[in-house]
């Protein structure tokens, strides 16, 4: 037998064996569909855990009930809610038919996280920051899931990476929604999934419904797909711990994804090649787009477009010691599916991740800063030599010693004289490639902009954002140091004129500065600051300066695209007052408030439905029955810079719509909630104990507020107390009665009051607070 024939025989045998192993593993693992995020009346949802599991088994294979942790302190008939829920989950579990799971949702300003199968819990009012949570999860050793990462609820401080916590936070929710629409996988959550992978987290995607109504799993077709040996508690938990999941907007889609015969969710070590096997099946739902997404590139697989069943294999060279691969699919009907990744890593425990190049689009001659995180992902000390190469040339070498799970954030290296074109930076630890990154240096066609910061300049957040965008497009931004004169190699000068406060002495331009600016060969731009007098003075002194009326003009002048940062827009002077949700007061009892608002040039609109709003204020007085769309519109109103004034009332005769209002507040990640109680005061009142006076403000039958996070207390009382007036044992105990508070949400502001204090009954008595704080 010839050597060539022998080699081919060996190769063919290996290929057949590989195929048999893959097929065998695929047949061993079955796909089950369910929901890992839902709520009941044990927090801010509807129904009981028993009802949730009973309902869900008609629509899926497994359900996790994950009520909000800050409700769990209140027992039910003397029993812990977590114990009751876990017992209900065990009772609902029937091997081969349905699996019930229990957990809780930790919430804080940095984000929300589900923790599964634990009686113990951590609440944000005890330890509310991310560091506390990661310390708790490492100690508790429980499985966790990042929930709905994004601007609204937080993205965990840009997925701040903690190596030891990575052992337990194994899931990330990229699909979330309990409306009838299947469109739950958002671009924002998908992008945050990729950010989490780039930070170093080993997480697989899920799509859940976050049910607050009695529609567990049945709200829409979005599902978390799980690859497990069988439908039992142990096998489902094993699949979740090992990241064998996919997020799907289709309830019966089948996906198998393997790398070098290892199933999705696996970590491969020291492989120089990876063979990916993808098996797809969804009758009459053909593929419109299939991509293999990696850390370094996206590969489009066009040969499967239009097919509703196929198996395909692709082989890739692994370019460095840290890479991941996952499958993204969009079906012809628009449904999206995202698989768990397969990681290919160096067996070296020291990793370099979150590599960032700044500026993002450097030009020739610019200095480039490379930032990265360096960490030890093992439980043993790690030491060795970190070498960094640029285009194959050693540019940095240092000895590194790291304790178990130690991480060094934001290490940096400066690069100069980088050649035009594509460049590659590589990280080696103990001679093993642990990471690489590519970036392109463009020809020097950018501009150098000098920014004045010597004259009490009014530099707004929008201007700072423009300067970041300017640098990211490859331009250079420099700042005046001692005098605004004598600068060379500068194309443009940008002066934001002085702000209203500050010292006049520093606001004045010197004769030398005026002369240099008037003789400057490039453009000088003036942006109006808050001190109008000095703006006019600068304009008269600088004869050739170009006046800029808005930051948007600068974007056009420099031909710069705006980044995706949230931006506060100019709002119309309109006050919207909700009247369509059984509100506390109607317009006939708000005549004095309306008269005042019109006197300060506000337009007042009474609305029955909360649609897209363009205005300054939205007033909600003890409303109820808000739809998911209305709640989203309220959040969007705040993101655009609006102010929400929201009030409740006491639980006397069950009068407060606490549950509905708190559902709304939960959507915007509020650090404040309305209590289901009545505030009384035997000392400071105006005729009865429920007519409370606090800080000279009068409240008629108010509820108290509960603070769980960072918020400003506006009105409180040392003499008032909280009682459970409706006798339902649902009032939370408070140490001190708070009646008004506020917090910021994105660009907007939320003001909460335990009762509306601006009706015609109260307006005159509370006039100072209404005019000087609520409506300026």
Automatic annotation (TrEMBL):
Residues 34-110 form the Polymerase/histidinol phosphatase N-terminal domain. Coiled coil: none annotated. This is PHP domain protein. It comes from the Bacteria. It comes from Fervidobacterium nodosum (strain ATCC 35602 / DSM 5306 / Rt17-B1). GO terms for molecular function: 5'-3' DNA exonuclease activity; 5'-3' RNA exonuclease activity.
